[in-house]
Amino acid sequence: MHWLGCTVERDDILLKLRERIVAFAACHATGDAAEDLAQEVLILLHEKYGHVDRLEELVPLSLQIARFKIMSLRRKSQRRGEYTQVSVTDIQLPDLEADPALLLERRQMLERLTRAVAGLGGRCRELLRLKLQGKSFGEIQQHMGAQSINTVYTWDHRCRKQLLDLMGGDWEPEK
Amino acid sequence: MSREDIQKLLGGYATDTLSQAERQALFEAAVEDQELFDALAKEQALRDVLQQPLARQQLLDVLGPAQAPARRGFRHWLRQPAVLAMAGGVAVLAIVAGLAWLRTDTLVPDTLVHKQYAVVQTPLRKEFVLRAPLRQTPPQVVLPKPPILVPQPQMAEAMLPTATPVRPKANEPTLARLAQSTHSADLARQLYSRSDPAMGSSAGALARMRATVAPAAASPVRHLGVRYGLLLKGADGEYAPARLDTEFHMGDSVRLRLEPNDNGYLYLFDRDATGGWHLASTQRALRGQPCLLPASGALQYGQPGRKELLVILLPSEQPSLTNLESAELDALAASARGDILTATVPGSESAYVVDARVQAGRQEVVFKIMLAFR
Distance between CA A169 and CA A116 in Å, rounded? Predict the structure, then answer.
């Protein structure tokens, strides 16, 4: 019963993911909220993405949902005045066409990223360029004439660290 | 893979660089390891941004053009055992030559001689020449001519790997790499030409490269290419060739004359005022037959400035191409840039643009043309 095997495996993955998400969310929210957040992610995975059962799809999907939930939680807290008290007249009406906060965050991050990328060294720039062009590590190895793929992994690891340092240690600014 | 190795895969998550096996290894480790999972979750923010084609393109623009392939190729070439052996040979010859020269040069005090050697490599044959040393000598001292060592071609040939020639992999841009050692303009012309001397005669530079380095891959490869020029409509209503660097006037009627070296489909996109690409024309093109784009009418602009065109030549019709977003077309042009060789004909009335990759059946020519209007 292959399908049953898949289901069991999926449940097993989801259990582990729940554990990981709760622990990760605990850094961004209080204990109960972290539990709720993980639960919401799992509900979404179960109800909307029930057809997704492969690990390599479930992990990025859960990470993306978790990130949106965390951002939503932050904004909700701000609106409620948990961090700062804001006059009701200052609260902007929501734009139902798109999520301007998300777009703004992306734009700001892209601006920071653009500045940081300009400070990278020659090899890192070339490596990042090839990655952005969609090349795999294997192709990058051939393209850059590296002796082994491990060399490329090491280069990439260092370049990522360098880029992260240039961005102040985190992709997203401290909230 | 060790934990440390798996952590090195993190950098490929946001850019979607990982292969199936790498993804599997990373995610399997992440669901078991909280620290790795947290790191992956932090990468999600970057991934969300990089999944936007426009963001990718903006970063690619900041990163600038590809590193000169010649430098990469030279480094790669330098690492080959045959090259290392040859370098050793050159070093020995240099020492021998130096000793011989010192013997015949006893009249000159050592302090007056500043020895400077240079190894000259021609791109195709790994020859070397030990150049005359530069010396600072008083005018009254007459020095014998220093020896110039020019090894016989046989000697250089003997140093090349003959038993096991390097066989390129199917998806490797071998010719682009080979092109690093020769003049790209010459190579572009040779690759474009249907009667490519490299295919038959032994005269062309490419032929020699192929014969020496990759004989197995040489014959079946066909490089899709196009020769293009600009046509300007004159007062008599006739179109006449114009130089590629012509500065046109507002209201001028301009068309492209394109001559592919194989049958295919041509697409012409025009960058509109909003910065997006607009399909100006598409046309089936026959090998060696000039065709004009736009197929009807002409390119006309009412505003001065630089106008950007995107030309795509594909072996067959791709209707989906016309549905691509502007950012996707930009990404396509950016990704193709490294595989395209361009050569402008003397006089600048036309240029050759060729896909230098060795990928039979996957050839495509994607390039931009800038027109200046005042």
Answer: 11
CB-based contact A21:A37 (threshold 8 Å): yes
C-alpha angle with apex A61: A58 to A63, nearest 5 degrees? 105
* C-alpha distance from A111 to closest chain B C-alpha (Å): 10
- CATH 1.10.10 assigned to domain A100-166? The reply is yes
Could B48 and A64 be called an inter-chain contact, meaning their C-beta atoms sit closer than 8 Å? yes
Q: Residue ranges of the domains in chain B? A: 3-51, 81-159, 225-373
Rg of chain B (C-alpha set): 27
**CA distances (Å), A79 to each of A28, A75, A85, B290, in order?**
17, 6, 9, 65
Residues of chain A contacting residue B19, judged by C-beta atoms under 8 Å apart = 136-138
Q: pTM for the whole thing?
A: 0.42
The tens-digit pLDDT sequence of chain A (175 residues) is 344 445 558 888 888 888 888 888 887 776 678 888 888 888 888 888 888 888 888 898 888 888 888 888 777 776 666 555 555 565 555 554 556 777 788 888 888 899 999 888 888 999 999 999 888 899 999 888 888 899 999 999 999 999 999 988 888 776 5
Domain extents in chain A: 2-84, 100-166
Phi/psi for B306 (5° steps) reads: -95, 130
Give B84→chain A minimum CA distance, Å.
15
